[in-house]
Design a protein that fits this description.
Rossmann fold; 115 residues; mainly alpha; single chain
Amino acid sequence: MSKRSDAADVACAYRRTGIAPVSGIGRLKELTGREKEVLLLLGTGLGNRQLARELGIAERTVKAHVARIVDKLGQETRLQAAVLSVLAHSVLCVDPSCPCRHSALPPGIRNAFAA
């Protein structure tokens, strides 16, 4: 078998889970400003304690924010929300000096993120 046919025989991991890689993108506008801030930091891989320090809030408040974010975005886990955060970084980020400001998203995806 060629490499091409081997790859075609492998099902997408997302298909098995029933959750599309970018499911939840259209729901980003449901998040509050603070939840967007938490989600953006969640994509950096920080733990709850580090997130709490960075945001100047209690760790249990971070946990509450993360739980609401996961629920609002229709995700099942914190990790799925973090992956979505990375995929949506250029839309969530409001820092004008961030390198993400210079990356171009396809128009269809950019429109899906519009708040």
